Amino acid sequence: MNNTSEKESVIRDKFALIKASLSSFNCSLSLKNNEIEILMLDKNLLKTVLFLKDNPTTNFDVLVDICAVDYPYQEKRFSVIYNFLSTTQNLRIRLKFNVNENQAVDSICSIYSCANWYEREIYDLFGISFNNHPDLRRILTDYDFEGHPLRKDFPLTGFVQVRYDSEQKKIVNEPVKLDQEYRNFDNLSPWEGMNNEISGKEDGK
Asked: Which is it for strands 105-106 and 130-131: parallel, antiparallel or unpaired?
C-alpha cells in the first residue's frame, strides 16, 4: 500500500469514527476530497462545535476560519462555513449550515476566541448578526457605511463615496455620483471618425 492509499484509508477510518460520535446530533456527514464535511442545523451549533473541540475522538483544537456565501435566490439565503483543524490527528473538517437573511447565529467566541474578528467580518460584509458576540461592530468598512459589500445585490459603485473637500477642509461622505456620462458604443462602427475611403496606396501617394 502506497502512502496516498494509506492516508486515504486512515481518513476513512477517522470519518467513520467521527460519524458514529456525532450520531446523536441532527446533522449529515460526507467525505469530499479527503476532507470531512458536516451539514447541520444552526440551533445545534454551540453543542456541535464544543463537541468537535473537546471530545478525544475529534479534538479539533484550531479554528482556521469562518466565511459566508450569499445565494440570493435560495430560501435560506446565506451559508455560514467553519473550517477546523486537529493538530493531533492531522485532520481537517468543514462545518456548514444555511440561515435566513434576518436570522442571527450563535457566536462561538466563548469556545474559540479567534472567532471574534471572523464573525465581525461576516457581520460587516454580509450583514449576518451573531448572538452574544462581545463586540459586534464593523471591522473593514466605516461605522456609517451603508449596506454590506459582499452581498450579491450590493451595487458595484456602492451607495456612498468618500472624498476630501478643499473648501470645508475635511473628508466628506456623499451619495455616489458618476462623473463620466453614459456613452452608447456602436459596435458596428468601432473606428468612429476615420475616413472610410481607402486610396489603395500604402505610401499615400
From this structure: parallel
Q: Which three cell numbers stand for residue 176?
A: 455616489
Report yes or no: 39 and 57 within 8 Å, Cβ to Cβ: no
Q: By the 8 A CB rule, do 133 and 109 touch?
A: yes
Pairing of strands 62-70, 78-86: antiparallel
Chain centre distance of CA 63: 15
Q: Do 115 and 140 form a contact (C-beta atoms < 8 A)?
A: no
What does the alpha-carbon distance between residue 68 and residue 106 come to, in Å, rounded to a whole number? 14
Query: Using an 8 Å Cβ cutoff, are 128 and 122 in contact?
Result: yes
Q: Give the Å distances, CA to CA, from 5 to 11, 48, 121, 128, 199.
A: 10, 30, 39, 41, 72
Distance of CA 157 to the CA centre of its chain: 20
pLDDT digits 0-9 by tens, 141-180: 887 788 899 999 888 777 777 778 888 888 877 777 766 5
Question: How many angstroms separate the CA atoms of 137 and 130, rounded?
Answer: 10
Q: Which residue has the cell 476530497?
A: 33
Quick: pLDDT tens for 31-60: 887 788 999 876 788 989 999 999 888 889
Q: Residue 37 in contact with residue 63, Cβ under 8 Å?
A: no
- Please tell me the class of the 3-175 domain: alpha beta
What is the separation of C-alpha 113 from the centre of its chain, rounded to a whole number of angstroms? 19
3-state secondary structure of 66: strand
pTM over 0.70: yes
